[in-house]
Amino acid sequence: MAFFNVQIVKKYINGKFIKYKSRMVTNGMKTISLLNLKGGVAKSFTSLNMAYELWRRGNRVLLWDNDKQGNLSKAFGRYEAEQTAPTARILSGDWQNPVELIQATDYEGIDIITANLSLFGAAWNLVREGETDMTERYRRFLKAGINNQTGDSICESYDYCIIDNPPDIGINVVNALVVTDEVIVPVKIDENALEGLDIVAEQIEDAKTLNPSLTLKGVLITIYQNTDGEAAGLEWLRQEWDSAESKHYRQYKVLGRIRYSAKVAENSFVKKPIYEYSPCCGAAQDYKHFVTSYTGIGR
To answer: Do 149 and 143 form a contact (C-beta atoms < 8 A)?
Structure first.
């Protein structure tokens, strides 16, 4: 667990000064993995907006695109299709200084490790070669000294690391779980999504053999429309959490609910956090409230 000193400072954002709480990390970085074996549940969009909301609260955030599709990299305008992506190089061990693989974004305090299709080849080669340390590649990167020094590591340079994972459990996802503190499962409520939660939970339990401190923090309901079916699914999750007789008792805590908004589809063309594009829309307000609830720090 990280501990922080908090002070009120001002940052110039979108033409005006905004007060926010600046936290200076004193004991490590919290790593959060966004994971669901089902696609189309807004994992990348949640990673982007969670990072933005953490940043608005004064945190330094490292985003890690762990999906060969590179959607998170594209969202920040850092996607490069023709080069071997930094995430692929970390997985293959082809790097010297960790700083070389981290890119700044347009937001000072949010950095990113990008991905593209080269990650598929790196993962396949690693499994084929059967190296004994194949599950330790991401941990080695995060613990490495900056500029080959023995002092500060990547873990000591950020308050949060958010890993955007693909909808599978490949060797790159196993590496991510090895360095993860908490897993958040974005869920779009439909007839198939709820069944997949048990599979995700089983995979997390398996990964605890490599990372005993790994925790399933809970589920974040995304793209929520208040239909009878979705309302029933949300109520079922809450009841399963509270019922001592359920096999899911205290397993899938509902961390928040992100409402559907047409502004999200529009925002995909401008590539901004949803709060900057449409601060009054339901999704923007919900991500703001979710991060406030998650961290206990408002803005």
So the answer is: no
**Structure-token pair, residue 80:** 């490069």
Its pTM stands at 0.87
Report pLDDT for 136: 96
Q: Please list the ranges in the chain whose pLDDT falls under 70.
A: 1-27, 146-151, 191, 193-195, 241-250
Q: Phi and psi of 16, rounded to 5°? A: -150, 155
| The pLDDT value given to residue 13 | 41
What DSSP assignment string belongs to the chain? ---EEEEEEEEEETTEEEEEEEEEESS--EEEEE--SSSSS-HHHHHHHHHHHHHHTT--EEEEE--TT-HHHHHTT---SSSPPHHHHHHHT--S-GGGG-EE-SSTTEEEE---THHHHHHHHHHHHT-TTTT-HHHHHHHSBGGG-SS-BGGGT-SEEEEE--SS--HHHHHHHHT-SEEEEEE--STTHHHHHHHHHHHHHHHTTT-TT-EEEEEEEEEE---HHHHHHHHHHHHHHH-TTSTTTTTS-EEEEEE--HHHHHHHHHT--HHHH-TTSHHHHHHHHHHHHHHS---
User: Domains of the chain, with CATH numbers?
Assistant: 29-295 (3.40.50.300)
How many alpha carbons fall within 13 Å on the CB side of residue 83? 10
